[in-house]
Structures are given as structure tokens and as C-alpha cells.
Amino acid sequence: MQMSFRQLSRAGRPLTLAALSLAILGSLAAPQRAHASAFQLHEDSAAAMGRAYAGSATAGDDASVVANNPAAMSDLKGTYFQADVTAINFGTSFSGSAHDALGRPISGNGGGDAGTTMPVPAFFFATQLGDKWHVGAAFTVPFGFQTEYNNNWIGRYNAIKSKFESLDGTLSVSYDVTDNFALGVSGIAQKTSAELTSAINYNAVGLGLVQQGVAAGAIPPAQAAALAQQVGTIVPPGTDGIARIKGDDWAYGWQVGALWRITPNDKFALDYRSKISHTLEGTANFTVPSNVQALLSSPTVAALLAGAGGVPFTHTDGTAPFTTPAVATASYWHQEERFGLGADVAWTKWDSFKDLTVYYSNPAQPTTTEAFNWRNSWYVSIGGEYYATEQLTLRAGIALDTTPTITETRDPRVPDSTRQLVSFGVGYKVSKNFVLNASYAHIFVNSARMNATSSTGDVITGESDDYGNLLSLSAQYKF
Fold first, then answer.
1. Cα–Cα distance for residue pair 227/116, rounded to 1 Å
2. Which 8-state DSSP code applies to residue 109?
3. Quick one: which of 455, 419, 347, 472 has its CA closest to 92?
4. What is the pTM for the complete model shown?
5. What is the C-alpha to C-alpha distance for residues 114 and 32, in angstroms, rounded to an integer?
6. Structural Rg of the chain based on CA atoms
7. What is d(CA 194, CA 19) in angstroms, rounded to the nearest whole number?
8. What is the per-residue pLDDT across 58-75, written as a single tens digit (0 to 9) for each?
9. C-beta separation of 448 from 464 below 8 A
10. Smallest Cα–Cα separation from 216: which of 118, 304, 95?
């Protein structure tokens, strides 16, 4: 859909919708492209992944419960050291078209495969303190992603590179209230960081400056068309710069869990992880071509910028409040002599992520808000284990993971859609105290349709096709 020149005054205003705005707003919500919805990660246990995370808090003998349900440490008799690493290989390819705020096609390619392969580590320690108490510590990565499109792709004004990561340090304690019931709590210290880039459409910025001048009474309406033509000559379409930002923050949360031994063969667990509220603090830098610098320093434009409080697209500090969501999980496990079966249901409270507001130190870039309006998501899995021998365990599972994103606000930084996961795994007991686990999972992703608008009014329409492969390994020693 084309936009009128009057509409451009809203879509292209660089002083109120500078490229930094969307670089932060869009990127903080980007997907990690692993198996959990949006940018949530579950990849902290090779054994659990082999069952598609069914029975994640009830299957037993997995120290990852230190971070996933502290009450389940009740099943860990003795002292455990466990290290897991998961290689996440994902791909995302866009097909569609793009045009600027005046309806002119944007040149460029399809962006290539924006996916990558990245490792996700996890470390756990758990031990008993007497008959009823257990304590543990963990390092995990519960949220994260990395995507990168080609610099000259048609959606470059929406996104190029996006890297986001949350690192958790967790301390947990559990208490056996009775022989069949345990409670646990955790304290969580979380560091979240972001590194983001996108292109800036300086042609749209220049046209927006003209419209601002008209609206402010600094440019006579009769001269607007001629000035717009001059802008198009000095800063033609395709005159781009790059916005680069970095930011991070420490924040704290908590977790509470319960474990019931319903029968000698059946266990049920509940866990609730709190949201963690951050205020990301960082810096932004911009590349500005020489012809754009000349335009910004011209007498007419310089006067407009002075009235706005400064020059946009210069080094600045900024802050962005951002919250990682609350998660509630129910886990069930049935144990027999030769096999075990389980199921998990997890609910992630993404509806708290309605919008993101960004505050800037540079007065030429006022506070801005971008709407996301995400929905709560569900993760449902079933899986099991077969004990082929005393040393060898075989695992398999399937899962459905719904997306929190919606078509109306989905963009290339968030090409997320509902996913289906199939996984297989194997465990081998090397000795009485030493166990190795390995698992593989493939992710099938529905096409993610989008109709996204950048901060300078550029519209990209189409869909992303995604896939994922996960390979996880772990080593556990207990004594």
C-alpha cells in the first residue's frame, strides 16, 4: 500500500522516529530460532531434550532441575556435577517485497539465510545437606538468539544483525516436607545484553525533514515540492547508513517449585519462574554519508535541528525497559522397570510484552514506543525412555510449541511461528558414577507471515521459512 506525502510526515520523522528507535525496539524482541517460542531457550539438558523435555522436572537423575524446578532436587541422592552443551543450528529465509514510504520499490536481495550455528552451555551442581535438605547452583542461558541478514537486502531498514542473550546464575534449595512431598525455591541473577544493527534510509529522513519544516511553519508549503526534489537529488534512494547499538543490564528474579510422589511409580511437579525486569543501558553509533552530512548542515535544516534540540544520528546513550517473561510448568512421569513415560505443559506469560519504550540522552531523539502485543504461549510435549540394558537408555519425544507473535506486529527481527519438534536421545552409563547423554532434535516451523514498517516508513511484506536442528551432549558425575 502506498503512502501519501502527508502520511510521510508521520512515517519518516527522523527527530521522533530515528533509526535507533526501531533498532532497539525491533531487536529486543527477536527470535532465537531454537525450539522454544520467540527468544526463549530450553536447551539446558541433553537427557531431557531426548524426550522433547517431557518429564523435565520429574524423570529423576538430571541435575538440570536445579534451574528448572528446585523441588525436584529431592530425587538427587548424593552430590552431582553436570555439564551440558547444545549446538543450535537454525535457518531463516525471507521471500517477499519491500517499498519505501512513497511506494517506491526498495532495491536489494532476499537477505540470504539469516541463521547461524551457536553453542548454548549449562553447568549444574547439587548436593544433599542431611536427609531432607538439598542445595544446588546452576549457570544457564534461558533466553537468546542471533540472526544476521545481508547488508544490502530489501529489509535492511528493519533489521540486519540481531544478537540477544540472557545469562542466569541460579542458587536453589529444596526441603522434603514429607516422604512424598518436597518444596524448593531459587534465587536468580540474570545478565541480559544486546548487540543490534540496521540500515538507515536517509532519503526518507531528508523528505521527513522537509515535511517537518512545513508543519513547523519554517518552510512555506509552496516550496515543499521543490525542496523535496532537491533532497531526492542530494540524497537519492539507496543512500544508507548503519545504526549500531549495544546495551546490557543485571536484574534479579525467583522461582518456586513442588514435587509430589503420587505413587511409587508416578510423580508430578509444578514450577513457577518469575518475570525479571531489566533496564538495558547502552550506546548507539551511526554512519552518516558525506551527502547526508551536507544536508544536515545546510542552513535551513540546521535551523530545524537546532529547534528540535540537537542533531540526530550522532553518538548517544539510551535506556530501554525490558522484561523476560514468567513461566509456569507442570511435569509428570510414570516409571516402570524397563521404561518411563512423561509429559510436560509449560505456559509462558508473553502478554506482558505489549510494547517497548525507549528513552534517549540525545534530545533530538525523544521517547518512542513500539507496539508488539504478544500473546501467551504454550509448550506441550510427551516422551519416554527405554532401558535397553543396565548401561544403555534410549529416548524419544514430540512437542508442540505455539508462537506469541501475531501477523500484525511480526517483523524480520521476529519471524517466529508455531513449531513442532521431534527428538531422539541416548544415555550410556560408563560407570556407577559417570553417565554420558546425547540427543538430537529437528524443528518444523510454520511459515511466518509479516507486513512490517520500519522507523522511516519502509514496508516489507512476505513470509519467512524457518528450520532448526539441535544436537546436545552432557556428562554427569555423581558421588
1. 44
2. B
3. 419
4. 0.84
5. 11
6. 26
7. 16
8. 999 999 999 999 999 999
9. yes
10. 304
